[in-house]
TrEMBL record:
UniProt key word Membrane: yes
Provenance organism: Coilia grayii
Pfam families (alphabetical): C1-set
InterPro entries from the UniProt entry: Ig-like_dom, Ig-like_dom_sf, Ig-like_fold, Ig/MHC_CS, Ig_C1-set, MHC_class-I_related, MHC_I-like_Ag-recog_sf, MHC_I/II-like_Ag-recog
Protein name, UniProt field: Ig-like domain-containing protein
Residue ranges constituting the Ig-like domain according to the UniProt record: 208-300
Region annotation (Disordered) ranges: 348-369
């Protein structure tokens, strides 16, 4: 793997396992960790600490401390308790990811070149600031791997193993209590403290702008019905496309990815391809539930004109504009012509008057002589 690919993976976390934002509740604290084996200009181990979607810290095997990032840069240096907890968690994670990388290299028979293991690890708070889940997801060389979820309220552990080394029942029980007694208190306490320090950034709420529209398809006689929510913050949103009051099945819908806007807000769209008959015989609506809304937001379908109708409308507008231009030009020319004629008449009248005066003067002179 080239250094450019490694750079992209480390800086942009493009090879980390995908995280659905709806996996988390009101707020989350996640560490995006990367272990690299091989000759690269990057640290062997690094971790980016994210409060919701805001980077608040960075840890690496080179520095051996948590470095404040983002809004935390403007605050006091993280205290000893933060550094102690960071060292405890990331040191254990570093050693575990290094050992796990060697096992996966043996499993995939990839003993040469640069190898990297990435892990997302953290916790979340539910809407009422109650602990939600601990989560761990891994990827090796860009391929998604094991996933583990611990529900904090009922202390149940769910695992999905894709690599060799699945836990026995005894191992699962033992690891569950390690997470509950060690990782979970540190994560939840740190999350509460960071929320307090960054209230202005993470507590802001921006309402979504919701639109449901229909667009004709160029490759068929049907149409695409799209539900779009944009401009909202925080990122958690529940967007539902309904047909006759019932949610459209997920397998019929395209989209649904959460995307960032340039102003720090987010957008999401869900689309459904339908025939012309379906649009005419069914009622399509879109609903959104968001932390900024007291009640869910509902909107009905805005029918977009068919392509032919659109062109006809454009033609009518152009014709009306042309007709109006002709009328204005006619009125202008008529007024100009009338004005020119009146000027000529006045000039002729003036010349005739002057000639009359000259004749009268000559007549008077003759009489006097």
């Amino acid at each position: 793997m080239s250094r450019i690919q490694i750079l992209l993976c480390v800086l942009y976390l493009s090879c980390t396992p995908k995280v659905n934002p709806f996996d988390f509740g009101g707020h989350s604290l996640l560490a995006f960790a990367t272990y690299i084996k091989g000759d690269t200009p990057f640290p062997a181990f690094s971790a980016v600490l994210m409060l919701d979607d805001i980077e608040v810290g960075f840890f690496s095997s080179n520095h051996q401390k948590l470095i404040p990032r983002g809004p935390m840069k403007d605050k006091h240096t993280l205290g000893p308790s933060y550094q102690k907890n960071a060292m405890s968690v990331f040191t254990v994670m570093y050693e575990h990811m290094r050992a796990r990388t060697h096992k996966l290299m043996y499993h995939y028979n990839t003993t040469y070149g640069v190898q990297f293991l990435q892990r997302i690890f953290g916790c979340d708070l539910l809407d009422k600031n109650t602990p939600g889940r601990m989560i761990s997801k891994e990827a090796f060389n860009g391929e998604s791997g094991d996933e583990k979820y611990l529900s904090i309220p009922d202390k149940t552990l769910e695992t999905e193993f894709k690599w060799p080394g699945a836990w026995t029942a005894l191992q699962s029980e033992s690891i569950k209590w390690v997470i509950i007694d060690f990782y979970q208190p540190i994560c939840i306490k740190t999350l509460h403290n960071l929320l307090h320090l960054n209230t202005k950034q993470v507590m802001r709420k921006v309402k979504p702008r919701l639109r449901l529209f229909q667009k004709g398809l160029s490759h068929s006689a049907g149409a695409q019905v799209t539900c779009l929510a944009t401009g909202f913050y925080p990122r958690h949103i529940n967007l539902t496309l309904l047909r006759d009051g019932q949610p459209v099945p997920d397998h019929q819908i395209t989209g649904g990815q959460l995307l960032p806007n340039g102003d720090g807000t987010y957008q999401m769209r869900k689309s459904l391809e339908v025939s012309t008959e379906e649009v005419q015989h069914h009622q399509y609506t879109c609903t959104a539930q968001h932390l900024s809304l007291d009640n869910k937001l509902d909107i009905s379908l805005d029918h977009e004109p068919r392509p032919g109708a659109k062109y006809v409308a454009i033609g009518v507008v152009i014709a009306l504009i042309s007709l109006l231009a002709l009328i204005v030009a006619f009125i202008f020319c008529r007024r100009r012509c009338v004005g020119t004629g009146m000027k000529k008449e006045k000039k002729m009248e003036h010349e005739h008057k002057q000639k009359g005066e000259e004749s009268s003067q000559k007549l008077n002179l003759n009489l006097l002589s």
